[in-house]
Design goal:
The structure is a homodimer of 464-residue chains.
Chain A (H helix, E strand, L loop, with lengths): L8 H7 L4 H7 L6 H20 L3 H13 L7 H16 L3 E14 L3 E7 L3 E3 L1 E3 L11 E8 L2 H6 L8 E4 L6 H4 L1 H12 L4 E5 L25 E4 L1 H12 L5 E6 L2 E15 L4 E11 L9 H20 L6 E8 L7 H9 L7 E6 L7 E7 L2 H11 L9 E4 L7 H5 L4 E6 L4 H4 L12 H20 L6
Helix pairs in contact in A: 1-3, 3-15, 4-10, 10-15, 12-15
Chain lengths: 464, 464
C-alpha cells in the first residue's frame, strides 16, 4: 500500500522552526484550521510515517494473545496479560505506569454441551452466555420450541411451558438482534421455559457460536441461556416447522464466583506545561473467554499504547498529559470504566477529551464525537491532519463503554471509527484472533490516535 | 428475482404442434442450432418455469440432511439416507428404481483432540483426515515444528525427527494447497516426524477445520494426520518463528474397519424409442462425517433427481433413457463410480453422455465438457436454451470423479459449473450445511440439468 503525503509537508518544514511558545503566541483565539495545519502538519507527518514503519503494536498484540490467551474478567490470563503490559510499559519508559485495582464479576463457563436427541442424535456447537447460570449436573433435557422473535413467543406462550425456547431471529444489525441475547432468558422464563437458546448474534457463520452478556431480572426465575450457531438454529427451525419433535439436552457448569481483583493499567506521557490537564485514551483489555480477544479489544488497547510510545520516541511531548488506559471488565460489568471514574473523581474536570478504540483496529475512517460545538470544531480541525491516510472523518455521536462515566460527567467522548464490515463475523467468538487484523491497518489506527491525541493535548488554552 | 424468458417462446408454441417423429424427419443431419431452438425452446421453457416454481429439491435436501445427518461411507446415516431416497424415488413413479451394492472403505473418526501444552495450555480445534491412523490411547505428545511448505521441510529435515510437523501453506487455490492434505503425512514421516498437522484447505476460516482424504505410501511409516484451523496454524507459526517451544498432544481414535456394503441408487426415465441409449446424470451421495454434506454433494444428487422427476411430471419423456445415479463413496474411495462402471460394463458404449453435478448447487453458469467436437457442437446448441437463465456457457474440460471411469472408456463427460466462489469456505467442514444453499439457485441448477439431459436424450441419431 502506498500512502499519500500531506501536501503541506513542505510548508510544515518551515513552520517547524517556530518554537511551541512562539506558535501559541501567534495563534488566534478559537479554532483556526490554518494554524493547525501550519503548526502541526510536520509533526503529524512524522507520526504517520513512523507509525506505518513500525509493527511493534501488531507484534505485541500477537505476543499477548498467543502467550496469555483470552482475557475474561476474573481469569489468571487477564491478570498475567496486565502484568506483562505494566512491565512492558515501564520498559518503554512511559510516565506514571501503574495498576489500579478493580473488583470485577467472576463468571466461569466450565464445561458445557448441547446434544440433539430427537429427531436424530447429534452434538451441537454452543457457547453459554456470559452471566448465565448452569444446569443441574445431568443437564436439562426437554422438548424445544423454535420462535423467530419475542412476538412469536408471546403468540405461542402456552406451548413454551417446560420447554427449551430457541430464538432464531434473522440478523437485522447488532442493535436489533442482540436483544435476544440480553433478555432472551427473561422472556423465555416468563413463558415458563426451562432454558433458552439463541441464534448467535452475527450475520455470517461457519459453524461459529458467539457468546456475550445476558441479563436476568430479579423477579423472574433464572434459566440457563446459551448461543448456538446460525446453521443449527436454522436446522432446528426447519425441523420445528416440519412438525418434527425436537428434544435437546443442555448441560452447563456455568457459575458466578465472588468478585475478583482485576486492574486498570495506566501510563502517561506527562504534559510539559499543563500536566494536570488530561487527554485520556484507550480500550478495554478484558475479553470473552473464547478466541483471543485480539479484535475486541486487544488491538484497540495496544494501538492506544503504541500511539503514546511513538510520541515519546519521536520526542513529541505535548503541553498537556496524554494518559493511556487499559480498562478492565468492559465485557461483563463495565467495572473498569466505573472504577476509573471513581478513582479519578478529583481530576474528571481536568479531562479535556476521552478517546476509546473498541471497534477493531481495522482501516480507520476517523472518529465519532459526542461533545459541544467547541470541541467539535477543534477535533475537525485536527482531523484534517489525518486526511492523508483517509482517517479524517468526524461524525456525530461517539464514545465507548469505558469512557461513558466520564462522558456523563461532561467530558467530550470520542470513538475511533473503522472499516469494520466484518466486525460481527468475529465478535465474541472463537474466531476473534490475531489473523483477522492487518499490521498496516493497525498502524493506521495508531497514527490516527497519536495525531489526534498529540495535537489536542498541545493546542492553546484559548481553543477550549 | 425475475427471470428473462426466451424470446423464442412464441415461435416455440407454433413448432410444438409438430410431433416428435415429424420434427426428426424434418431435421437435417449434424448440429442445427435453429432446429434445437424451434424444436425444444417450448419444452425448455416449460422445464425452466416449472423448476423455478417448485422447491421440492431444496425441501428434500433439507429433510435428508436434517433427518439422517452426514453420510460417510460405511455409516448407518448413509444407508438410511439411501433407503429413503430409493423409497421416495419409487413413490415419485420413476422407472427401474434400484440399489446396486458397492463395497466401500469404512473409516471411522472416533473421538479426537489436540491440546497445546506449551507455550500455553489450550484446546485446539481439529479434524482427523480421512484414512488417517489413530494415535495410541494416550495420544502423541511431542514438540512441533512449523513449516510453510515441503521445501522448507526438506531444508529443515534434521529438525523434524521425533516432532509433529505442522504445515501452514498459504492458500494458493485448492489444487496447489491440497497436496499438504494428501501427501503431508508421507513427507513428514520421511523426515522422521511422529504426526503431522495441516492448515485446513480453505481460503477463509471462522475457526473452522476442514477434513478430506489423505494418503499413505506402503514403504513409508504411517503417522496420524489431521487438519487444524487457519487461526491456529497462524498462531503456531507465530510462536515457532518467535522461538517459543511448542508442545502438542494429539489424540485420535481413527481407524479403518473392513469394507462395508453401501449402494449406488439408480432411477430412470426410460426412453420412448431408444431406451437402451443412456444419458447418465447424478452426483455423489456420500459425504464426510461433519456438517451435513448439503453442498458436497447432497445438493447435486437431489438436483439431478429432481430434474428427472420434473421431466416425468411434465410428460417430457425423451427418445433415449435418462438415468439418474446417486453414486456412493466418492469422498474416500470412488468405489461407487468404479462399481457402476463394472456393473454396467455391457452398456457403457450405450452411454451418450455422463453429467455430474459436484460443485455445489449454487447459481449455475453452464457446463464444462470433455468430449469430441461432435458432442461439443451438440451440447453448445442445447446450452443456448439455458441462456435465459444465464446458464448456457459451455467450457472446455469437465466431468466428475464418479463419471471418470466412463470418461476413460470414451463417454463424453460433463460437469455442472456454478458460481462457487464460496465453495471452499464450506467444503469438507462442519459448515457444509443446507443454509449455505439457496432454493432459487438450486432450482436453476435443476433447470439446467433437466433441459440439458432432456434435449440431448431426445435429439436425432444423426447428431451423434
Amino acid at each position: 500500500m502506498t500512502m499519500r503525503l500531506p501536501h503541506t509537508i513542505f510548508v510544515a518544514f518551515v513552520c517547524a522552526a517556530l518554537s511551541s511558545t512562539t506558535a501559541f503566541a501567534a495563534s488566534p483565539g478559537g479554532v483556526d484550521t490554518a494554524f493547525v495545519e501550519s503548526r502541526y502538519a510536520e509533526a503529524a507527518n512524522r507520526i504517520i510515517t513512523r507509525a506505518l514503519s513500525d509493527s511493534t503494536a501488531f507484534e505485541r498484540l500477537a505476543y499477548m494473545c498467543d502467550t496469555f490467551g483470552p482475557r475474561l474478567s476474573g481469569s489468571k490470563n487477564l491478570e498475567n496479560a496486565l502484568r506483562w503490559i505494566e512491565k512492558t510499559m515501564k520498559s518503554d519508559g512511559l510516565d506514571n505506569v501503574r495498576s489500579e485495582p478493580v473488583m470485577v464479576p467472576h463468571w466461569v463457563r466450565g464445561s458445557e454441551s448441547l446434544v440433539l436427541l430427537e429427531p436424530r442424535r447429534s452434538g451441537l456447537l454452543m457457547l453459554g452466555l456470559g452471566g448465565s447460570i448452569g444446569t443441574p449436573p445431568n443437564g436439562i433435557t426437554a422438548e424445544a420450541i423454535v420462535v423467530r422473535d419475542f412476538e412469536e413467543l408471546e403468540r405461542r406462550r402456552d406451548q413454551a411451558r417446560g420447554k427449551i425456547v430457541v430464538y432464531n431471529p434473522p440478523w437485522k444489525g447488532y442493535g436489533r438482534t442482540v436483544q435476544y441475547r440480553t433478555r432472551g432468558a427473561i422472556e423465555a422464563a416468563k413463558a415458563g421455559a426451562v432454558a433458552s437458546l439463541i441464534r448467535s448474534v452475527t450475520p455470517v457463520s461457519l459453524q461459529t457460536p458467539h457468546t456475550g452478556m445476558m441479563r436476568y431480572h430479579d423477579s423472574i426465575p433464572k434459566i440457563p441461556h446459551a448461543a448456538i450457531t446460525l446453521e443449527d438454529a436454522a436446522m432446528l427451525e426447519r425441523m420445528h416447522r416440519r412438525g418434527q419433535k425436537i428434544v435437546l439436552t443442555l448441560r452447563m457448569e456455568a457459575h458466578t464466583l465472588p468478585d475478583a481483583v482485576s486492574h486498570n493499567v495506566l501510563a502517561e506521557l506527562r504534559g510539559t506545561e499543563k500536566p494536570d490537564e488530561i487527554i485520556v485514551m484507550g480500550g478495554h483489555i478484558d475479553s470473552w473467554d473464547v478466541g483471543d480477544g485480539a479484535m475486541d479489544d486487544g488491538g484497540g488497547c495496544i494501538a492506544a499504547w503504541q500511539a503514546v510510545k511513538l510520541l515519546k520516541e519521536l520526542g513529541l511531548r505535548p503541553r498537556r498529559t496524554i494518559r493511556v488506559v487499559m480498562w478492565t471488565n468492559e465485557e461483563n460489568g463495565m467495572r473498569g470504566g466505573l472504577e476509573y471514574f471513581d478513582a479519578h473523581k478529583e481530576e474528571v474536570s481536568k479531562h479535556l477529551l476521552a478517546i476509546e478504540s473498541d471497534a477493531g483496529v481495522f482501516k480507520p475512517r476517523g472518529f465519532g464525537l459526542s461533545g459541544n460545538d467547541t470541541i467539535r470544531a477543534v477535533v475537525k480541525a485536527v482531523a484534517r491532519l489525518l486526511n492523508s491516510i483517509d482517517a479524517g472523518e468526524i461524525t456525530d455521536h461517539g464514545g465507548g463503554v469505558d469512557i461513558s462515566p466520564l462522558m456523563r460527567a461532561g467530558v467530550p467522548g470520542m470513538g475511533l471509527r473503522v472499516h469494520g464490515e466484518k466486525y460481527f463475523w468475529y465478535h465474541h467468538s472463537p474466531a476473534d484472533t490475531v489473523d483477522k487484523l492487518d499490521p498496516h491497518e493497525m498502524n493506521l489506527c495508531v497514527a490516527a490516535l497519536a495525531v489526534m491525541a498529540y495535537v489536542v493535548a498541545d493546542l492553546p488554552e484559548s481553543w477550549f
